[in-house]
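Reviewers of the previous submission asked for a worked example of the structure-prediction workflow described in the proposal, so we include one complete record here. The input consisted solely of the amino acid sequence. No template or homolog information was supplied to the procedure at any stage.
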Amino acid sequence: MDRKDGIMRPPTSTLKPPPRTIKPPPSLRAPPASFPAANSAQRAGGGRGRKVALQPGFSPLDWANLKASGKDLRGIEGGLIKVDREELKKHNTPEDAWTTLQGKVYNITPYLHFHPGGEKELMKCAGKDGTKLFMWYHSWVNFDNMLDRCLVGYYSG
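From that input alone, the workflow returned the following structure tokens.
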């Protein structure tokens, strides 16, 4: 033991750093394409969804700009309406598509070309209640904010 300043210390030749118990932080690099979470088709819904290439002018920013433009996206005159099952069923074509999400009815026609999964996927809920399908794939998405300018009214069943 070394007694230089009155403190007992072991000889320096026997000092070793303690074993490393803390793991280094994970890399900030994006995971490789083969990593399951990197593939958005495998995130929610057990890998059933597929993203499609959107046409120029149909990005999320373009959708936000369209919403802010003041253009009528509801497709109906007047205020909010009550929509029953029979009325909802009538709106099931790409030219006139409505769906209900948690009791609210939206005209999804203007959004069809902006949908990351493509028009075909979105048309699965046209003319019917799309809540279950939406929550399966997009439970974290705030549809009230995304489709607020498309609100037609409320579903009365």
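Residues 35-47 have pLDDT under 50 and may be disordered. We consider this example representative of the routine output the project will generate in years two and three.
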